[in-house]
Amino acid sequence: MTKITPVVLSGGSGTRLWPLSTPTRPKQFLPLTGSLTMFQLTVMRASDPSLYESPIIVASEAHAELIVAQLAEIGVTDATIVLEPCARNTAPAIALAALAASNPEALLLVMPSDHAILDLDAFQQATALAKKLAEDDWLVTFGIAPTGPETGYGYIAAGPLLQDGCHAVASFVEKPARELAETMLAKGDHFWNGGIFLFRAGSFLDEMQLHAPEILEAAMASVEGCSRQGQLLRPDAAAFTASPSDSIDYAVMEKAVRVATVPVDMGWSDVGSWDALKEIGLADLSGNVLTGNVRQIEAQGNLIRSDGIRISAIGVENLIIVAAGNEVLIVPRGQSQKVKSLA
Questions:
Q1: Interatomic CA distance for residues 25 and 189, integer angstroms
Q2: CA 198 – CA 189 distance, rounded (Å)
Q3: Residue 103 to residues 51, 107, 202, 208: CA-CA distances in angstroms?
Q4: N or C: which end of the chain has fewer CB within 10 A?
């Protein structure tokens, strides 16, 4: 049985979770939903040796030591770690991973490192379905079951049924207005685009050659000029910097013909804000999600988190209060997307 190679994209900056998330330690390297970090949970999600090969990590050079240390903490010592000299979005990053896989027949499961998935069984079932299509040279994207008319996500419109609940993709819809989002949800055939993909390395590179040749050329040149230090792979900086910056959706997925989606309800969150973390957190009887050195009296519906100083909240409602180091954030729930302007 052909195994799947996990590809973990870990170059995000996590500015919406300031002050806890910082450039030196962005959100994927923080234990936001449990004792393990988001990055560690992502790697562990695809670590069954009967199903998965050793992972490929694509990340920033600035986080090399952090990645090696966090992998060692969960017993992963055989990962290939591709260190981007600069950020160029997901299409170039995935091209690096596909080239690092060496074998064009390799099945790549591409996952952001900073997302939460609560139903692991549903995730594995969706991966098994996606694998069948990827083996037939489809580019497969996971369609996240929407829980509301979210305007901050892209959507996938499901087309004809292919097999076992998998559909061809009819179209992609970028961050719709609320009225359109409500209409799509009412139709029942639209799903959130969570940025999780499964395809053959060669199939993806072929589509890159057709639709984004400048990105592929830069990625190939950077890999040809790379240096290796143990498990660390450093692409040539000048060659990679010359790459256009583009997402996999714009560069490839919206242009390719054989694109499929596997709809899945797996308790997914991109943990893209403090509000999102409040939604998936374990709340007390008063609806508070409390983490760290925190106490409350007659407080309701808050997310309060401290990594040091004690926070005492009395009678407050629907606030997000976060203390990290010398910084304290206080913002009403529902407005935490504005936090990125402070980071």
A1: 38
A2: 21
A3: 17, 9, 8, 16
A4: N
pTM of the entire predicted model? 0.95
Round the CA-based radius of gyration of the chain to a whole number and report it: 20
Residues making up the chain, counted from first to last: 343
DSSP states of 231-287 as a string? Answer: TEEE--HHHHHTSPP--HIIIIITT-SSEEEEEE-S-EE---SHHHHHHHS---TTS
Supply 213's token pair.
């040749």
DSSP state of 223: H
At 115, which CATH number?
3.90.550.10
Q: How does pLDDT run across 172-210, given as a tens digit for each residue?
A: 999 999 999 999 999 999 999 999 999 999 999 999 999
Whether 326 and 190 map to the same domain: the answer is: no
Give the helix/strand (H/E) hosting 220.
Answer: helix 213-224
Same domain? 36 vs 88: yes
Residue pair 192/146 in contact (Cβ under 8 Å)? The answer is: yes
Determine the structural domain holding residue 206 and report its residue range: 4-269
Residues 172 and 320 in one domain: no
Domain's final residue, options 236, 269, 302: 269
Tell me the per-residue pLDDT of 38-93, one tens digit each, with 9 for 90 and over.
999 999 999 999 999 999 999 999 999 999 999 999 999 999 999 999 999 999 99
Asked if residue 209 and residue 190 are part of one domain, the reply reads yes
Instruction: Clarify whether residues 105 and 183 are in a common domain.
Output: yes
Give the whole-angstrom CA distance, residue 257 versus residue 259: 6
